[in-house]
Specification:
The protein is mainly α and 153 residues long. Helix content is 55%, strand content 0%. It starts with 17 loop residues before the first helix and ends in a 7-residue tail after the last helix. It binds zinc ion.
């Protein structure tokens, strides 16, 4: 995230100036960043927390959900969402009206390219598949937008 690697560190170890951080991030070109679907900030985990038992759901359950989402995609369109082309996106990733309105807002606010827009739609389609939803709703688009946090700023 910054030249020293400690940006946002809870213990304040980052000594980079805002200007240094900005210049550092600008080295990642927009077109390159566009191709990264899920951009998530992952803060450092304190050692004492790492040593505690994991409290999330077991991986086997997550695996079942992912397999089911994959199966939905194959049945609907014969390929995964990530492999959909432009015309297929139009056919299979039509957002509901509220979701479409949210998308239009995001495009202008985040200044998204056509490529970034299509990728956002495919991520929203995938989130809907994981929730067993046939339609792309506003909440699916909202979640997909959260995964593009480095798109601007
Ligand atoms: Zn730093």
């Amino acid at each position: 995230p910054c030249p020293c690697g400690y940006f946002g560190d809870a213990r304040g170890r980052c000594r980079c100036t805002p200007d240094q951080v900005l210049r550092y991030r600008q080295r990642l070109s927009g077109p390159l960043l566009d191709r990264i679907d899920l951009q998530i900030e992952v803060p450092a985990v304190p050692a004492e927390v790492l040593q505690q038992a994991a409290d999330g759901e077991p991986s086997t359950l997550v695996r079942e959900r992912v397999s089911a989402a994959h199966e939905r995609q194959m049945q609907r369109q014969g390929k995964t969402n990530s492999r959909l082309g432009g015309k297929e996106i139009d056919a299979f990733c039509q957002p509901q009206p509220a979701a479409a309105a949210l998308l239009r807002q995001a495009i202008s606010r985040l200044d998204l390219s056509a490529r970034a827009f299509h990728r956002l739609l495919k991520v929203a389609r995938t989130i809907a598949d994981i929730e067993c939803s046939d339609t792309i709703e506003a909440q699916h688009v909202a979640e997909a937008i959260q995964y593009r946090r480095f798109a601007k700023d």
